[in-house]
Write a structure and sequence with these properties.
Blueprint lengths: L2 H25 L4 H11 L8 H8 L3 H13 L3 E5 L7 E5 L1 H10 L2 H12 L5 H17 L21 H22 L4 H12 L7 H8 L3 H13 L3 E5 L7 E5 L1 H10 L2 H13 L8 H13 L6 E2 L6 E4 L2 E4 L4 E3 L1 H4 L2 E2 L6
Antiparallel strand pairs: 1-2, 3-4, 5-9, 6-7, 7-8
Helix pairs in contact: 1-8, 1-14, 2-4, 2-5, 3-4, 6-14, 7-8, 7-13, 9-12, 10-11
Length: 344
């Protein structure tokens, strides 16, 4: 079993879930990071509901978390109180208004729909348990080891029927490591996500509009991010040969270096070692491929799947071909994600 591929599938699924979360948050005028903090607090215990624990979980500085908590407190979504035994410790409680806004921002509809598609494939229970094993390995490999409390309680999503909620948990652990690495490089997480997308997309999907669609953000917000990345010489823009209104965004060498530094390779390697030590795990990554396909089918927007897994992809004696654009495809493009992807 190729563990690295499994984590890449998880990352692809996480991107689709994150995009849906951004859309929902934008609709109710809530920042994604504020949704994530509220979501964390809704599942934390008396041992993990502190600003320090929150910062550790997200891989953020305490100052950044403090700013988010100030905003959420002003909106009336949370309240703080001092610990009864140690007055230096501050606990953060989620208020009913916070729970209400959180329910509006959750991606439950997408996850439930994906779960229905997934169950139609009649995946055997032993393979489904793979998600729990991989999540457990990631949790053990994580530097912060979130949701492990002094009384022995843990983050209780391991036994949930909806495996996509387990994927959400894995995505949060990966995002925490990415945030930590971004902080060291003085780079915002969203800027890394733009760079990472550009390293994965093909020639049909390297535009501002495609990036905005993939990340679930407005074009204006993405445009600001691209300006910053261009100033740092991490990307460059080139005008389309056929349509001068369209600009393609290319990743530069420095941008690829940043991706390599931020990508949680060490976390994946540690998790891989933990999985390999567990002899009870059966080989097979097919279950993760099926889960990704189910999530792509459930997504009402573009699926952003790998080109060669698209309904419009075909092979002929001269190479690869796209039936939608009626153009030849390079080997590189066929191995990358495309916004026009239609799951088979």
């Amino acid at each position: 079993m190729q563990q690295e591929n499994i984590f890449e599938y998880v990352r692809c699924m996480a991107a689709l879930i994150r995009s849906e979360q951004r859309r929902k948050c934008a609709h109710i005028r809530l920042q994604l990071v504020h949704f994530e903090v509220l979501d964390y607090l809704s599942q934390s215990t008396q041992y993990t509901d502190t600003p320090a624990a929150t910062a550790s979980y997200f891989g953020m500085t305490r100052g950044t978390v403090s700013q988010s908590l100030i905003v959420l407190e002003k909106k009336g979504y949370i309240e703080k109180h001092k610990d009864e035994l140690d007055k230096r410790i501050i606990h953060v409680d989620l208020l009913p208004s916070g729970s209400a806004i959180l329910s509006k921002a959750r991606t439950s509809e997408l996850l439930n729909k994906a779960n229905i598609f997934f169950k139609r494939e009649s995946i055997a229970p032993p393979k489904i348990r793979m998600f729990n094993h991989v999540f457990s390995a990631l949790q053990k490999a994580s530097q912060s080891q979130p949701f492990k409390a002094g009384n022995g309680s843990t983050f209780k999503l391991m036994n949930k029927a909806n495996i996509f909620e387990v994927i959400e948990c894995m995505a949060a652990l990966i995002r925490s490591e990415e945030r930590r690495n971004c902080t060291e490089l003085k780079l915002q997480l969203v800027h890394f996500q733009v760079l990472e997308y550009l390293s994965l997309c093909n020639k049909y999907s390297d535009t501002l509009a495609a990036i905005a669609n993939y990340l679930g953000m407005t074009r204006g917000t993405v445009s600001q991010s691209l300006m910053i990345l261009e100033k740092r010489e991490l990307i460059k823009k080139t005008q389309d040969n056929s349509d001068k209104r369209v600009f393609h965004i290319q990743l530069l060498i420095r941008g690829r270096y940043i991706i390599k530094k931020v990508k949680p390779t060490e976390l994946f390697n540690k998790a891989e070692a933990i999985i390999q030590d567990n002899k009870s795990i059966a080989a097979g990554e097919e279950v993760f491929i099926e889960a990704l396909r189910a999530l792509q089918k459930a997504n009402e927007f573009n699926s952003f799947g790998i080109c060669k897994t698209c309904m419009n992809f075909s092979r002929n004696p001269s190479g690869f071909f796209c039936e939608l654009t009626q153009e030849k495809l390079s080997k590189s493009d066929s191995d990358k994600i495309c916004q026009e992807h239609i799951p088979v």
